[in-house]
Design goal:
It is built from four helices and five strands. The chain has 143 residues and is α/β, with parallel strands linked by helices. Strands 1-2-3-4-5 form a five-stranded mixed sheet, sandwiched between helices. The protein is globular.
């Protein structure tokens, strides 16, 4: 039973697809990844598809589905390393991959995840303060 490894890097998961994707493997990856997001409380998922030379509509939809499921589980998804032929194929198939952030390589993808995580934490803090969920604590000046 073939599986794609999922590595935990801090609060992120790294998936590097190094084999040709077929439908059964894509479904297994989706199941494994959603389970791993919950088990590890991951905040981000980086999927490296640089080894994929071709994709079909099913694989494209699976990537979009993974991103949607990750978002529901409170994790951002970034796909990196997309080959030009893959991008062309996805556009020709009419798959816009809404909700999926992309980056050229792993370094840029990790930066994108880190930046979006920091922004998300800042937004949550601001929303909590606006709703009165956090109390301000000020040091009193006693002279």
């Amino acid at each position: 039973m073939e599986r794609i490894p999922i590595l935990k890097l801090g609060s992120f998961l790294l998936v590097t697809i190094q084999v040709d994707m077929h439908d059964e493997l894509a479904v297994r990856l989706q199941d494994d990844l959603t389970t791993k997001i919950v088990d590890s409380s991951a905040r981000g998922v980086l999927i490296d598809i640089s080894a994929l030379d071709i994709v079909d509509s099913f694989i494209g939809r699976m990537l979009a589905g993974i991103a949607s499921m990750s978002k529901i589980l409170d994790a951002q998804t970034v796909v990196v390393g997309m080959q030009p032929a893959v991008a062309i194929t996805l556009v020709e198939l009419g798959l816009s991959l809404d909700g999926i952030k992309t980056a050229l390589n792993v370094d840029r993808g990790m930066k994108l995840l880190r930046d979006s995580l920091e922004l998300s934490e800042d937004e949550n803090l601001a929303a909590g303060e606006a709703n009165g969920e956090f109390e301000s604590i000020h040091a009193s000046d006693e002279n």
